[in-house]
Amino acid sequence: MPYEVGVPMPDEFDVIVIGAGPAGEVAAGRAAAAGLSVAVVEKELAGGECSYWACIPSKALLRPVDLAGEAGRVPGVEMAPIDAKAVLAWRDSMVSGYDDSGQVRWIESAGVTLVRGRGRLAGARRVEVETQGGDTRALTARQAVVLATGSTAVIPPVPGLADARPWTNREATGARAVPGRLVVVGGGVVASEMAQAMRGLGAREVTMVVRGGGLLERLEPFAGEMVAASLTGQGVELRTNENVEKVERPDPEGEVTVRLASGRTLVADEILVATGRRPATGDLGLATVGLEERGPVRVDGSMRATGVGDGWLYAIGDVNGLSPLTHMGKYQGRVCADVIVARSRNAADDRPSMRDRADGMGAPQVIFTDPQVCAVGRTEAQARADGLDVRVVEYDMGQVAGGALLGEGYRGRAKAVVDERRRVLLGVTFVAPGAAELLHAATIAVTAQVPLDDLWHAVPSFPTVSEVWLRLLEEYGL
């Protein structure tokens, strides 16, 4: 039950989880299902960033834009103009009107106690909670404390920027109206997705200011190039190799002026800063257990925090800096909970499923632009930097029969990075409309290290885009 001032609550639990986002909920629910008593502490909405300000609302905004692009490629199909007001209302329904009562019911049904308030460490196995009523509650964990506090958006120290009330992902995904003019600072996932969403929903001008030479620079180069071409084709202006020097907004409700290092001045209704995130560790009390107050909490393969004796402290999700992706945080939550349960029973805690392998292989990721970008494992550059014997094969996905059937002008590209010594895949990238559903097959192939000679016998259905697997293997020489 949620904690209320004046209502008695046990001081001790087997497990205390700080953070009720997807990672924390999974860890808490899995530990409770195994019979441990669990409390989860949350200072905002149960369900966390992904549910209300990131994954869910951003995809709700992007889906109509994606569908319009898909329909526009099919002869004989016409899309009515996108009704931005209706899309924003649908977004609201997808985030339950920013009401977490549904998430709270799930937490309670899982046998987990929800404690509303800001939690922080106060020594070994101890957590202090500043409740919403202003009281402080001291909790003790018999077995483990799990940190699952996520991450926060970074606002660069540009003169005037912080005072200009910039948007982060929260304000962008939660926008009450589509701005007429938007400046987007950054060239990563949030920047690319929200630039496309706002332009597709009716923003007259969208300008991206990108410090580097292109978009999505951590992925294969062609991914950023294809997304950039799509964005510019939709009317988004890209300003690469550019920096923001100063931001001015004298009227908090008025227009914002953005001065660039090149001397150009941009004027917009809103400015979105999407230049990265940092682990939310600044007020977690890490110093009380001998850890640095800032930066990610380093962990081993079982998600135990390194540098803390007795193995009682764990960190999962964005807070450990491994993979800032919701599905990876949930995966780490499962690993973590199983280790905690095993240790509580004095059972073996080193089974293969109790160690994180996926992060080291390269986490799967989908970027929901049009075209979608889907990648898992290492890029070619990463594989070569690791000193591996690499061979690369690529294929034009527009030449696959299933792709051609999806519409005129269907374009895409696939790339596979092969470890020549072992003849297994190190990484796979797909960039094409609707390519997201191809990714899990690639994830299985990469993480399970399926030999190419075995993949040859995994016959793709005709006529589907998944035939690209056959084409890649043929390009390799099978």
From TrEMBL:
<feature type="domain" description="Pyridine nucleotide-disulphide oxidoreductase dimerisation">
    <location>
        <begin position="364"/>
        <end position="469"/>
    </location>
</feature>
<keyword id="KW-0274">FAD</keyword>
<dbReference type="Pfam" id="PF02852">
    <property type="entry name" value="Pyr_redox_dim"/>
</dbReference>
<dbReference type="InterPro" id="IPR050151">
    <property type="entry name" value="Class-I_Pyr_Nuc-Dis_Oxidored"/>
</dbReference>
<dbReference type="InterPro" id="IPR004099">
    <property type="entry name" value="Pyr_nucl-diS_OxRdtase_dimer"/>
</dbReference>
<comment type="similarity">
    <text>Belongs to the class-I pyridine nucleotide-disulfide oxidoreductase family.</text>
</comment>
<keyword id="KW-0520">NAD</keyword>
<protein>
    <submittedName>
        <fullName>Oxidoreductase</fullName>
    </submittedName>
</protein>
<keyword id="KW-0285">Flavoprotein</keyword>
<feature type="domain" description="FAD/NAD(P)-binding">
    <location>
        <begin position="13"/>
        <end position="332"/>
    </location>
</feature>
<dbReference type="Pfam" id="PF07992">
    <property type="entry name" value="Pyr_redox_2"/>
</dbReference>
<dbReference type="InterPro" id="IPR023753">
    <property type="entry name" value="FAD/NAD-binding_dom"/>
</dbReference>
<dbReference type="InterPro" id="IPR001100">
    <property type="entry name" value="Pyr_nuc-diS_OxRdtase"/>
</dbReference>
<dbReference type="InterPro" id="IPR036188">
    <property type="entry name" value="FAD/NAD-bd_sf"/>
</dbReference>
<dbReference type="InterPro" id="IPR016156">
    <property type="entry name" value="FAD/NAD-linked_Rdtase_dimer_sf"/>
</dbReference>
